[in-house]
Write a structure and sequence with these properties.
This protein has 119 residues and is of the alpha+beta class. It is 39% helix and 10% strand. Strand 2 and strand 3 form a beta hairpin. About 7% of the residues have low confidence.
Length: 119
Amino acid sequence: MPQVSTCGSPMEMFGAILRQHYTDDELYSVAIMPCTAKKAEAARPELVKDGERLIDLVLTTQELAKMIKEAGIDFANLPDTEPDDPFAEYTGAGASSALPAASPKPLSATFWALSRPSR
């Protein structure tokens, strides 16, 4: 099927980038995803490169929201800090790629889950 792309999902591609950029043995990658199917995707044998999983753990946005609530984290009262800069300086050349377009979705799903009453 020549019309079907051979590239991986954004989660898979970002996992590969993390493994390339951070080569230390202590890297543990966690993906925050709104869909539980991402847990099965991360467990697929295709997502093992050189004997290492590209994604070590997948949390759903609901699971993350529950953890945040249980920890009593109040984002409105956290002090302002500079964001992490995991890849140092960048050119902005990838600003039109699929990954930045997809990345706000797990974040917005997490905040949606946080705004709901606890069950």
